[in-house]
Amino acid sequence: MDNTGSYGDKPRVMSQESQVTSQGSSTIYRNIKTIDGARLGQIHTQRGIINTPAFIPVGTNATVKAMNQDELRELGAEIILANTYHLYLRPGHEVIKKVGGLHRFMNWQGPILTDSGGFQVFSLSPLRKITNEGVEFRSHLDGSTHFLTPEFVMEIQAVLGSDIVMAFDECTPYPATKEYALNSLKLTTDWAKRCKEWIHDARYKMQDKEIFIMNPASCVLHQSLFGIVQGGVYKDLRKQSVEELIEMDFDGYAIGGLSVGEPKELMYEIINYTTPLLPPDKPRYLMGIGDLVDVLTAVSVGIDMFDCVMPTRNARNGTLFTSEGRISIKREEFKADPEPLDPDCECYTCKNYSKAYLRHLFMNKEILSMRLNTLHNLHFYLSFFKKMREAIRDETFDNFKKEQTLILQNNFV
Question: What is the DSSP string of 183-246?
């Protein structure tokens, strides 16, 4: 689907359409069709349309590692993710403000989603202290002490000027007692309310044109705020979290706190239970999930958005996804292999280079190895999502799942 809302020459036929705008937000979600639980849709933002189900390449430090922005656009990426925590520490949100905001800083004119830093704080467990007010932590860069509150996190994201911003949350670990998960949920709900209040107050203040002119890098008037559902692996807590967030009326809803060590079966159980509880007229985002077997499961119950470092991190480590299964390019068997990485792939890497050359680059730690491998893996992911959208459009999603299962199991199991 292109940004006009049509797939090639085939006219778009909407079986249903949902449209929502929260006060101040410019985001509109359209549900075009729902087949076998899977939703075909679009998220309209001020900077462009995101066709869903969508994969969001991760650009933690305002860059998707080894790729430039033109290459991302050519691959079909419509939105990228940047990390609030990392950009706050380096180069600093005030630096990005002086340059004119994150889009100008990194020369990406499409939509950007920034996560709140909650997961990064979670991963710093030995270096942080959580209170009702916020989180004190020591930087992984230089050991300096910092304190993040929901209000400060919202301020940072406003200065960055991202299109979709995430509420500050506490990512519940696994395993966790129900008592811990409940207390964590209460904190996440309180912080979500404070994030909502901050953005509401900021929008009110920004209606003063003089204040708006003084803050050109802040796009708070047009930012969409997503709440994050927590509750660990406890269904009643997940339901409570959803209900409390819906009452606050966020622009979209994310499911967080999964893929943190729990068994796959338990993760699927929580996804299958939680997703139908979310409003059908808002985007649904499953955070940090990138295994495409998991993606198929989640799309089947109505998830719209995904992000993960899996394609890029694996590429840099020489692990490549193909229609014939996962390949470790450093293996001796590829030393003199003249064939392309994937005969069914149309990416630049597969059309121009052999497995022998890709292995040579990787073994010699050449920069080009990271670039070609990353280009291929991102093409694999983004092409998969495009084909999945087409299958939902054509009402062949069930067949698509069956056809893809073996390919994906050979890559991800």
Answer: HHHHHHHHHHHHHHHHHHHHHHHHTSHHHHHH-TT--TTT-EEEEEE--TT-HHHHHHHHHHHH
Kindly state the DSSP code that residue 382 receives in the 8-state scheme. H
**Where are the domains positioned within the chain?**
53-309, 314-412
In 3D, which of 66, 81, 125, 30 has the Cα closest to residue 308? 81
**Residues known to be catalytic:** 115, 307
Across residues 369-388, what is the average pLDDT?
A: 98
Residue among 141, 160, 150, 145 nearest 87 (CA):
160
User: Can you read off the two tokens belonging to residue 388?
Assistant: 């999945």
> What residues are paired with 319 via a beta bridge?
328
So what's the pLDDT on residue 214? 47
**What number of other Cβ atoms are within 10 A of residue 153's Cβ?**
30
Report the alpha-carbon distance of residue 209 to residue 226 in Å, rounded. 26
Poorest-pLDDT segment among 109-123, 205-219, 317-331: 205-219
**Cα three-residue angle 405-406-411, rounded to 5 degrees:** 95
Q: How far apart are the C-alpha atoms of 26 and 222, rounded to whole Å?
A: 5
- The pLDDT value recorded for residue 74 is 98
Class of domain 53-309: alpha beta
pTM tops 0.85: yes
* Lowest-confidence pick of 59-73, 174-188, 206-220, 303-317: 206-220
Q: What is the per-residue DSSP string for 350-372? A: HHH-BHHHHHHHHHTT-HHHHHH
Q: How far apart are CA 387 and CA 404, in angstroms?
A: 10
pLDDT at 9: 32
What confidence tens digit (pLDDT) does each residue in 28-66 have?
999 999 998 999 999 999 999 999 999 999 999 999 999
